[in-house]
Design goal:
Strand order of the largest sheet: 4-3-2-1-5-6-7-8
Order of helices and strands: HHHHHHHHEHEHEEEHEHHHHHEHEH
Strand content: 5-15%
Helix content: 25-40%
Structural class: alpha/beta
Number of strands: 8
Radius of gyration: 21 Å
Number of helices: 18
C-alpha cells in the first residue's frame, strides 16, 4: 500500500495530535453494537453529532459505524430500485441458476470489497425526512456542461420530489482553477444562483432574484471537491451554515493524469483560450480526460476560460501544496467531512480511457480511471470513506451517454445505482441530524 496510501498519509499529517478532539465516552454505543441493538446505536450516534460532530467523527467506534450504516441504507435503497436490480443481475446463462437474494446481488455489484456478514446485517429502516431548511449545493467537475448531460441530472428532481430538499448545482466554470471557481460557489450559497434541480435548462441568475439558501450541504464531484475546499479556505465565515461536506470521487489530491497533461500543455503556445482548445495539440491533451466533451457546446462565459489554470489546478503538486497550506485551517472548522470513491478495471472503461487507467494501475488498482483512492480522500484524518463503489469516474455521476457521444465504446451505459446512492446520502445525513 506504500504508493496508494501516500496521498492519504500526506493529508492526515497536516494537523497536530494536540488538535485531536477530546475523546468521547462511547461505551453505550459499543455495548449496543455487541447486542446488535441498532436503534440504540443510531440514537446515541445522533446525540454525539448534536453535541460535537467533529469529535464524533474522531471517535473510532462511531467512525467505523458510519460506513456500515451508510452502506446498509444504500443496499436497502438499491434493492428496491428496478434499475439497480436489473443492472445487478448475473450475466446469462449464470442468472438462471443465481440463488443469491436481491440484497446480495446489488451489494456485490455496486460496492467493492463488501463482506457477506455486512450484507446480511439487518438494521432499522431510516425514517423518511421532510427537509425544508437545508439546500444541497452541488459542485460539478471539470468540463461540466461540455459532456452529454450534467452530473446527476436525472437524479436531482427525484431527490427533491421524495424529500422536499432544494438542490442547486453551482454554475461552476468548466475550465478554470479551483480558486477562481470559488465565486461560483459563493453565488450558489449566498444568492441562490445556479442550476435549479441541477437541470441545464434551469439556470437561475441574479437577475431572477432567487431566494438564497439557508443551511447547506456541499457535495463536490471530481474537481468540484477541490473547488469546495478552496471555498472553505477563502470563506471560513460560511462554516456555521455548512452542515456537511461530501466528496464524490473528488480529486482532492489531484490526478496523476493531470500532471502529464499539464507538462505537455505548458510547452505549447497558448494564445486564445477557446481557439487553443480547438487546435490539434492543445485539444488533444485536454480532452484526454474526457474525449467525448463537445467543444461546440462552449457558448457561455467564453472570456473566463483558463485552460492551463484549470489543468494545473488538478496536478498533484498544486493540490498537495494547497493541503499543506490550508488543511489544518479547514479541519479546524466545525464541519463534518465524508467521502466516496469509485473503483473500476481495465475491461470496464471506454477504450479511449484504457491508457490512463493503466497509468493509474501503477499506483492503485482500485482507481476509478481518473483518480486513485488516496487522491479522493478528504483532508480531515477523521473523514470516513463511506463506500468504495464499483463504478468508473463517469459512471458514478452521469446518465448513460447517447450513442452519438460514445465514440463507439460499449462502456458508457453508466449502470451504477446513482439514485439509490443519493437517496441513501440524504437518509444518512438526516439520521445524523445534519438535514432539517
Amino acid at each position: 500500500c506504500a504508493r496508494s496510501c501516500h496521498g492519504r498519509y500526506a493529508m492526515t499529517t497536516s494537523g497536530s495530535e494536540s488538535s485531536r478532539p477530546a475523546a468521547l465516552n462511547t461505551s453505550a454505543i459499543q455495548n449496543a453494537l455487541a447486542l446488535e441493538d441498532y436503534d440504540t446505536v443510531i440514537a446515541e450516534v445522533r446525540a454525539a453529532f448534536a453535541a460535537d460532530p467533529v469529535a464524533a467523527l474522531a471517535d473510532p467506534t462511531i467512525n467505523h459505524w458510519l460506513g456500515r450504516r451508510f452502506r446498509n441504507i444504500f443496499i436497502d435503497e438499491a434493492a428496491v430500485d428496478p434499475e439497480a436490480v436489473k443492472h445487478s443481475e448475473a450475466p446469462f446463462p449464470i442468472r438462471l441458476v443465481d440463488q443469491r437474494d436481491i440484497r446480495e446481488r446489488v451489494a456485490k455489484r455496486m460496492i467493492r470489497h463488501i463482506s457477506d456478514d455486512e450484507i446480511k446485517t439487518q438494521m432499522p429502516t431510516p425514517a423518511i425526512p421532510a427537509i425544508s431548511e437545508t439546500t444541497i449545493v452541488f459542485a460539478p467537475g471539470l468540463l461540466t456542461g461540455l459532456l452529454p448531460d450534467l452530473a446527476f441530472q436525472s437524479v436531482w428532481p427525484e431527490i427533491t420530489r421524495r424529500f422536499g430538499i432544494r438542490v442547486i448545482a453551482s454554475d461552476s466554470h468548466p475550465m478554470r482553477s479551483s480558486e477562481k471557481n470559488v465565486v461560483d460557489l459563493e453565488n450558489a450559497i449566498e444568492r441562490g444562483v445556479g442550476f435549479a434541480d441541477g437541470q441545464p435548462s434551469e439556470l437561475v441568475t441574479a437577475e431572477d432574484n432567487p431566494t438564497p439558501p439557508g443551511d447547506v450541504i456541499l457535495i463536490g464531484y471530481s474537481k468540484g471537491s477541490p473547488d469546495i475546499l478552496a471555498l472553505l479556505a477563502a470563506r471560513p465565515d460560511l462554516a456555521p451554515r455548512i452542515k456537511a461536506v461530501i466528496g464524490w470521487a473528488g480529486a482532492v489530491g489531484g490526478s496523476y493524469l493531470a500532471n502529464d497533461i499539464y507538462e505537455k500543455l505548458k510547452s505549447l503556445p497558448m494564445y486564445n483560450q477557446i481557439a487553443d482548445l480547438t487546435t490539434s495539440e492543445v485539444g488533444k491533451q485536454v480532452f484526454r480526460l474526457a474525449p467525448v466533451a463537445e467543444i461546440k457546446a462552449i457558448n457561455r462565459r467564453v472570456d473566463e476560460y483558463d485552460v492551463l489554470g484549470a489543468i494545473n489546478s488538478l496536478t498533484t503538486g498544486v493540490r498537495e501544496k494547497f493541503l499543506t497550506d490550508h488543511a489544518s485551517a479547514i479541519n479546524a472548522l466545525p464541519i463534518p467531512q465524508f467521502y466516496f470513491t469509485g473503483s473500476t478495471s481495465l475491461l470496464e472503461v471506454p477504450y479511449f480511457q484504457r491508457q490512463g487507467t493503466l497509468e493509474l494501475d501503477k499506483y492503485d488498482q482500485d482507481n476509478d480511471m481518473q483518480i486513485t483512492q488516496a487522491q479522493a480522500a478528504f483532508p480531515s484524518p477523521y473523514a470516513p470513506r463511506l463506500a468504495m463503489f464499483h463504478a468508473n469516474h463517469w459512471d458514478l455521476s452521469y446518465d448513460p451517454f447517447p450513442l452519438s457521444r460514445t465514440m463507439g465504446s460499449r462502456h458508457l451505459k453508466n449502470e451504477f445505482a446513482r439514485r439509490p446512492a443519493m437517496n441513501a446520502i440524504v437518509l444518512f445525513l438526516a439520521e445524523l441530524g445534519l438535514l432539517n
